[in-house]
Amino acid sequence: MPQPQKHLRTCNLCEAMCGIEITHDQGHILAIKGDPGDPLSKGHICPKAVALQDLHEDPDRLKYPLLKTPEGWEQISWENALNEVASRLRNIQAKHGNNAVGIYLGNPTIHNLGSMLTLMPFLSALGTSNRFSATSVDQLAPMLVAMKMFGNQLMIPIPDIDRTDMMICLGANPMASNGSLMTAPGFKNRVKALQDRGGKLIVIDPRLTETAKIADEHHFIRPGTDALLLMAMLHTLFRQDLVDTGRLTNHLQGINIVKNMVVGFTPQKVARITGMKAKDIRQLAINFAKAPSACFYGRMGASTQEFGTLTNWLITVFNTLTGNLDEPGGVMFTRPAVDLPGLANVSGNTGSFNSRKSRVRKYPEFGGEFPASTLADEMLTPGKGQIRAFVTSAGNPVLSLPNGRKVEKALQQLDFMVSVDFYLNETTRHAHIILPPTGPLEHGHYDLALNMMTVRNTAKYSSALYKPMPDTRHDWQIFNELTRRLQSHSPLKWAASEAQYLAIKKLGDEGMLDLALKAGPYGRQPEALSDMQKRMARFMYKRFPASGISALLDVSPYSRHTRGEQHNLSLKKLKQNPHGIDLGPLQPCLPERLGTQGKSINLVPKLFMKDIVRLQKRLERKTKPAPDSFALIGRRDVRSNNSWMHNSERLVKGKNRCTALLHPDDAKKLGINNGDNIIVSTRIGEIELPAQITEEIMPSVLCVPHGWGHQRTGTQLSVAEKHAGVSVNDITDDYSIDALTGVAAFNGQQVTVSTIKIEKNVVRLNDKRLASSSAS
Ligand SMILES: Nc1nc2c(c(=O)[nH]1)N[C@H]1C(S)=C(S)[C@@H](COP(=O)(O)OP(=O)(O)OC[C@H]3O[C@@H](n4cnc5c(=O)[nH]c(N)nc54)[C@H](O)[C@@H]3O)O[C@H]1N2
Ligand SMILES: Nc1nc2c(c(=O)[nH]1)N[C@H]1C(S)=C(S)[C@@H](COP(=O)(O)OP(=O)(O)OC[C@H]3O[C@@H](n4cnc5c(=O)[nH]c(N)nc54)[C@H](O)[C@@H]3O)O[C@H]1N2
Ligand code: SF4
Ligand SMILES: [Mo]
């Protein structure tokens, strides 16, 4: 009798990178458990890990290309599908210009090695400025801050939770999200260890979240007012003479400007608006500054709101002025085995902002992309540059972008749309062709992106558990094939692109990763260099840490000569160590690793300083909301994942999680009982969902999760349809943005709540009917 076998890998469903152990019998999965041998996650997993099996076995998951015909979807060959997609895109571009094709790259892109490796050439072959991604509904603010302050959009400081004495969590709920821009699997254990060594976790959030419940302190804060809180905390720092910039003092510019800037923002003044007590604000700042080490961490609630950029900037300033930047226990930088931030510094590709503006709303570009809040405008507004054809990959903008109804309307009138996705969902149903890639267990995995965000440096490769089904394609193969077909036919360019195509095809995702690992900072010692050259390298790195050559060395295996590390990483070595390899705790690396001119950190970038005027106005704005007016906030649930994990019975079973949380005082005023259906409306539209009354939320705040709303017809999501919920983005306003960047302000927008009893005359949208009548 053959024994069941064990397969080790990393779960790629969220940012936590948990090591898992899959027990299987000839490929039939018997169990998915945490891998105690994984150096980062040490056995932790969450309930979503088992959904990898559900996803693999899901009969609704697409495996072959589909073409939309008047008779319905028809299976077609890969060759025909790829040719058709390329020729439709090319024809539209030939007629209307390159920008007539738009693209949206969704969240799972960063969890997919193959996409990460092949999207760049694909984007360059498409040659369109109309690029959009989940970045602008998510982490754009911390990236822009990193670019302006550290000279590199990828240099996002990570809380060193394992060594800190104090952590402040602002607008983040890692107990549900498992951490974001902070890969810290087993967050709860890490918090327990922090508390056991006498440290503290403090949560500031409009809701008493799952994270707040394990914290030592929780403070309610009114949505969208975090930047004011930070100004007042900085005010206290100066007032109490607690500024301490330590080792980096000589590399900081603008401390006095910060001091002047915060003068008018006293704790007393901001208390009224934030809803926090002045004495609490003062005490928080003092305790943080006095802690031996501390890290201030903010995430979605601090980023996708009216002042998301300012909030993220001020968080970094606060960490810096309390001596917690780049110090153990503070916020630090990773050094991943494929060192993307290091490579960006070398290539000069460190980020861009406002190098051009979007056509319709004139929003600034960031990193070559426009804010997704204006995607639909670019499709719906006629004129030169209008998007007429659209590519989506790993995204579901109908449910994920603000004003999803408008996105839906825009998709319906496109000349052509193609989706690289293995589900026929609310977005891909509008495509003319769907190109489904293989599932996560059918290809290898290495986290190129998330290794930049971990609380400890590790490296791990997961081999495929299953051979891909016959005649299926990986994401990287789809993009490589499309790139080839889209390439320019000028003989010179053709030769270069054909060479690139053949190289990618031959190397595959594994081959490309192997090269990157070997050339990385923990890489194998290349044989090509002589001893003399190595000595030179060492000399350059030590004597001229700020020079370009040293930057190049920094991302190469030679830098280990200066650090005495002997990892010799390659794909082979990772395969020999399937639990993963520990590369140690985060190390101080500033100023050497800065991408800025002169290796200095500007605490007061002009772009942010100018926006203070807007914040000042917010301070003066009188807000007395009407009883039926609420500030909307989002919420994540550990058994859900954005818009796409609702087709797993194990994850969606149990009570309905798509509910609106509100405070008992508000419920009483409006005559709402627990479980009543309420109508939540904005100028965009309305949704109807059950009320859940709880003391765990601030008065005048309403909390609704996103990613639901699977009642639309024409999808193939048999489980999700039965647990449809409603999409909060059917009512979020696409004009509710952080005015500095155009990033969606999902959090803090005003909504009106009414009961069905009162609002009898409201004409409610019949989702099913509306969707089917307008389906393309
Ligand atoms: N289970 C699960 N895990 C996930 C995801 C998922 O959908 N489900 N999504 C993944 C993704 S894509 C991301 S980006 C991360 C997000 O990771 P997190 O940011 O940790 O997740 P959220 O639950 O959105 O947490 C945001 C918190 O901000 C609070 N908040 C809202 N508005 C404000 C405000 O104005 N100020 C303050 N201070 N707080 C506010 C909310 O109450 C909420 O507790 O999670 C990832 N992990
Ligand atoms: N109101 C509100 N809206 C929000 C948020 C919020 O907090 N509130 N959060 C925002 C955030 S942080 C994010 S990141 C976005 C996420 O929104 P999106 O970027 O739209 O991503 P998902 O909803 O995760 O959709 C993932 C899609 O990718 C497909 N997919 C999964 N794995 C793969 C793969 O390996 N390859 C390919 N080709 N496809 C794959 C799935 O089938 C699914 O269709 O939502 C944003 N929208
Ligand atoms: S927290 Fe859950 S979903 Fe995220 S990587 Fe770990 S097991 Fe996977
Ligand atoms: Mo996200």
Automatic annotation (TrEMBL):
Gene3D superfamilies noted in UniProt: 2.40.40.20, 3.40.50.740, ADC-like domains, Dimethylsulfoxide Reductase, domain 2
Keywords for this protein: Iron, Iron-sulfur, Metal-binding
Pfam families (alphabetical): Molybdop_Fe4S4, Molybdopterin, Molydop_binding
A molecular-function term among this protein's GO annotations: iron-sulfur cluster binding
Coiled coil: none
Heme is among the record's keywords: no
PROSITE patterns: 4FE4S_MOW_BIS_MGD (PS51669)
InterPro entries per UniProt: Asp_de-COase-like_dom_sf (IPR009010), MoPterin_dinucl-bd_dom (IPR006657), Mopterin_OxRdtase (IPR006656), Mopterin_OxRdtase_4Fe-4S_dom (IPR006963), Prok_Mopterin_Oxidored (IPR050612)
Domain 4Fe-4S Mo/W bis-MGD-type: 4-60
Family recorded in the similarity comment: Belongs to the prokaryotic molybdopterin-containing oxidoreductase family.
PANTHER family in the record: ASSIMILATORY NITRATE REDUCTASE CATALYTIC SUBUNIT, TRIMETHYLAMINE-N-OXIDE REDUCTASE
Name this protein carries in UniProt: Dehydrogenase
Species: Ketobacter alkanivorans
